[in-house]
Amino acid sequence: MDWATLSAFAIFVAIMTGTPGPGNLTFMAIGASAGYRTAFPVIIAAELGSLLLNLCVAFGLGQLMARGGLMVNAFKFASMAYMTYLAWRIVQLNIKPKGEVSLPTFWEGLLIHPLSPKTWAMSLVAFTSFFAANGMGLYENAAILTAGFLIGGMISHSVWAMVGVSILKVIGEGALMRGITIAMAIAMLAATAWSLLL
């Protein structure tokens, strides 16, 4: 892969992983509700899920998803159902007293990217635009694709979680914080629904 293509891929990753989506909004909400230390293991889990998704795309599952059909419809249903569940978990962190609701787990984080339509779209567009006909081997392409999204995801998820922590420090707990958390959960569902319609 030449330097110009690699640079374009890096810019694509930075923009796509840095913009709002189910993952970033989830980590912002967790950071705002429970702090960065709580968000970090879930971020690691989400990145492992991203790694799995990008490997699947690189080794051919992306072509099956691009064809549409029953598999894509099942994915859309599972995606919306899981993101609705995740939004409810995020809201629970703020509307119930601390200690009455469990914090998001590693296993919940693991499913964020495999069930996120935004992540699938990013990976499919990146693979077809930068890797499909670049003359490199399958394993080399898979390594660059996964490494790019792992680095971009770790940075962006951490930044969004820290933004959440900053919001908590500025406004504290209370009605305004609950309102912001609910707004983030609604935005996450809206981003998921929008991605599914595209």
Question: What secondary-structure arrangement, pairings included, does this model have?
Answer:
Blueprint: H1 3-18, H2 22-34, H3 36-58, H4 61-66, H5 70-95, H6 106-110, H7 117-131, H8 138-171, H9 175-197
Helix pairs in contact: 1-8, 2-3, 2-5, 2-8, 2-9, 3-7, 3-8, 5-9
Plain-language structure description:
The protein starts with a helix and ends with a helix. The protein is mostly helical and 198 residues long. Helix content is 81%, strand content 0%. It has nine helices and no strands. The longest helix is centred in the last third of the chain and has 34 residues, at 138-171. The model has no long low-confidence stretch (mean pLDDT 84). Helix 1 (3-18) runs parallel beside helix 8 (138-171), helix 2 packs antiparallel against helix 3 (36-58) and helix 2 runs parallel beside helix 5.
Q: What Rg is obtained from the alpha carbons, in whole angstroms?
A: 17 Å
* Overall residue-averaged pLDDT value: 84
Counting helices, strands and paired strands, the structural category is mainly alpha
Helix content: over 70%
InterPro entries: LeuE-type
Pfam family, one: LysE
Organism: Pseudovibrio ascidiaceicola
Protein name: Threonine/homoserine/homoserine lactone efflux protein
Considering the chains and any ligands shown, give keywords for the structure.
198 residues; mainly alpha
Entry summary:
The protein has 9 helices and no strands.
